[in-house]
Amino acid sequence: MEISSLQSLSREHGLMTMEQPLKERDAEQQLRIGVPREVANEERRVALAPSGVASLVASGHEVYVERNAGVQAHFQNEEYAEAGAELIDDPGDLYAQCNLIVKVGPPNGEELDYLRERQILISALNLGGTTPEYLHHLKRLRVTAIGFEFIRDRDGTFPLVRMMHEITGSMAIQVAGRYLESNEGGKGVMLGGISGVPPSTVVILGAGVIGEWAARTALGYGAQVIVLDQELGALRSLEHYLDRRITTAMASDQYLRQAVRSADVVIGAMMSDGQRSPLAVTDDMVESMAPGGVIVDAVMDQGGCIETSRPTTHSDPVYREHGVIHYCVPNMPSNVARTASYALTHVLVPYLQHIGEVGSINDALWNDEGLRSGTYVYRQHLTKKSLATLFGMPYRDIELLIASGI
């Protein structure tokens, strides 16, 4: 574990005395929340939908939205203005006026120059693109930085990650169905078949959240669904949730080869927490598929789990290898930007409300384990042990920092 339990700290009398200044304040803190327009390549989502802005404004907070921040998710400037947001033309002005910035992707390029001392930054971290220079910059500014993908609920789940994975799993089947069509160079078959014509066979690698939602969606289309995983317990749970309407198998070499050879569609959804996705399907397995079949590697942002996969883009999403269509776009939820933005809003707004209610980010981190687990930079210190190990940087336990008043 990266963080020791606060409960254990409370038993130490020395730390208990330090806890006193951290009691909740009588008055709530008015937040000045900034929502910049995303500038990362092909990122169409926005961190807060107008409905989320309205909730925050109704709670007494000020929300500043960069003009056109929501346009690619089909949220118009007028909607934000009607929700109570102030529209800002210049991103530098937006950063300068706000004590909390919430965005989808981490700041990069010019955005780093806009950050101000002691600001709160809530965004994805995107570990694959993180650099020591980025972390040092946040530390120099004494920014409190919280990563979406690390925020954990009391039940141990990661709500933002789960919602994006649900979207990814469902989208993977939608995409596969489209590329099976003759017009896209596919086999010219339907996922669900019709009376007298059997359905397509969809093979899903991985029984996690992406695999579960891919299976649910494929079943909805009427496809024959086979799910393979390396953990028997995950397969058993998925069979239970889906009322045994799927076929499951352990992801052994024998079963993988049989399943891939028979597949019309292969969905790559196999992941390892904090590590690169395991390579499940080899080049020769892909070669055994019938021409016109479709592979959707839905875990490309973790490196992909199919040997023939390589990253593609929303503007140029597919290529062929061994006659099989490959769709390997990282950040698939960006292509359903409106749905994904609502999902982000529903998870983020309660956390923002909580920061305002307790009076400060320090008190919010003390009281909320989810926010605490999401914090990776706090008061000039790196507080995520995995990042410290990855980049060879010093690490401090965030609970000890908060308790000591540093």
TrEMBL record:
Residues 34-168 form the Alanine dehydrogenase/pyridine nucleotide transhydrogenase N-terminal domain. GO terms for cellular component: plasma membrane. Its EC number is 1.4.1.1. Keywords: Oxidoreductase. Residues 1-30 are annotated as: Disordered. Residues 180-328 form the Alanine dehydrogenase/pyridine nucleotide transhydrogenase NAD(H)-binding domain. GO terms for molecular function: alanine dehydrogenase activity. One of its GO terms (biological process) is L-alanine catabolic process. SMART domains: AlaDh_PNT_C, AlaDh_PNT_N. It is an enzyme of class 1 (oxidoreductase). Belongs to the AlaDH/PNT family. This is alanine dehydrogenase. The lineage of its organism: Bacteria, Pseudomonadati, Rhodothermota, Rhodothermia, Rhodothermales.
